Amino acid sequence: MEQRLANSLIMTVNEKKFIESALLSDIRVDGRRPFDYRNLTIRFGSEDGSAEVQLGQTQVIGFVTGQLTQPYRDRPNEGSFAIFTEFSPMADPSFEPGRPGETAIELGRIVDRGLRESRAIDTESLCVIAGKLVWSIRIDLHIIDNGGNLVDAANIAALAALSTFRRPECTLGGEDGQELIVHPPDVREPLPLILHHFPVAVTFGFIGKENTVLIDPTHYEEAVMGGSMTATLNTNGDVCAIQKAGGDGVLQTVIMQCLRIASVKAGDITSKIKNAVESYNTQRSLRKIKRHNPDQQGSSDVARHHMERLTVGSDQTGIASQFNEHDKTNKRNSTLKGFSGGPASWDPYSKGVDGDALRTTLASRVIPPLDKQKEESSQVNPETKSSPKSSNTNSFASTHESGLEKKQSKTLKDAVKPKHKRRNKSNAS
Prior knowledge:
InterPro entries: ExoRNase_PH_dom1, ExoRNase_PH_dom2, ExoRNase_PH_dom2_sf, Exosome_comp_Rrp42_subfam, PNPase/RNase_PH_dom_sf, Ribosomal_Su5_D2-typ_SF, Rrp45. Residues 37-168, 197-263 form the Exoribonuclease phosphorolytic domain. Keywords: Cytoplasm, Nucleus, RNA-binding. This is Protein ECERIFERUM 7. The chain is an alpha+beta fold. It has helices spanning 2-10, 13-24, 102-117, 150-164, 219-224, 252-292, 296-315, 317-322, 324-341, 355-365, 370-378, 382-386, 388-409, 412-415, 419-428; strands at 40-44, 50-55, 58-69, 80-87, 127-129, 133-145, 166-167, 170-173, 179-182, 191-192, 200-207, 212-215, 227-233, 239-246. It folds into 2 domains: 2-292, Ribosomal Protein S5, domain 2, CATH 3.30.230; 357-428, no CATH class. The strands form 4 sheets. Strands 1, 2, 3, 4, 5 and 6 form a 6-stranded mixed sheet that branches. Strands 12-11-13-14 form a 4-stranded antiparallel sheet. It has a two-stranded antiparallel sheet with strand order 7-10. Strand 1 and strand 2 form a beta hairpin. The chain is elongated.
């Protein structure tokens, strides 16, 4: 009511008369017929339970959240839901921040009545533990732009957000089996809400003394009309709720005509909501698949490459088995060469060293110790003694050892000749 008063103060008398005279000719200011809806656009956010609805110039955003709470005492096996509306001053100059006004309260009650009285939401499925824990659903409706007919736009936003909302799955576990476990979305797929039907609100406006009826009134038409009626129906034609606002009376025949028109419009809007939700679910499933397999073409190429390798390997198993021993010997020789002085992989200027030449040179320079030579000479086989080479080597080793022993046995006393040798030498002379 206060919104219509604010709009009527903005409009001039000539503008009001122009709108009334155009309706008498079945023409509206925006070019529509009296029973035509504006363009309806439904978009969804990246998260589940968020929807944006644009009906002409009217724009509403709906968010759905849930939390675990205790149930009511009279309904221990049923969950609950509540609707909260927020009118931003950016949407309309007549909206004021702070506490919700009359228009905000009326809007929330109309949408709530349509969902609650028709029992569109299965509240029993929201029960986790009877009498202890249930899910409480909260629906927030934010008015972004007021272009008229906020009730219909808010109702569609609430239905679209409820259709895409998913709550976490809960199970009982633990040692005693009474511990509540809330599974995150990564562990188990969240569960959607169970909606039995879609109660769609359709608003009619009555303008002039002749009660000219029109559907989906705009911002300017709301300032001219003397009364309005909102009928909430589903696709089956069931009347879920009716809200009459304004002082002008309406005939019964006019109400029945409005209900017949609302039944047709409710079916069209329901089909649009379902199509939008179906496309959103398809995109959501594709996003989930991409999260686990981001490159389907790349994965198929990799799989094909592995299959080709397997087929080639199976064909060459016979050939590989024939050259298995030869490859092992070559590999052993190559490792020995590389270990004994082959070209270093880290040094590009290394040409390598001949391992055999290096061994011979080192062996020729090494002189074995005397004790070792004695042991080797004492352990010589008789066969080796019979050979001339071995005898020569043994004789050479024995002479070498005797010489060394003589050298090692001399002392300072040996340097001085004994007296008897001196005398002998003198007598000989």
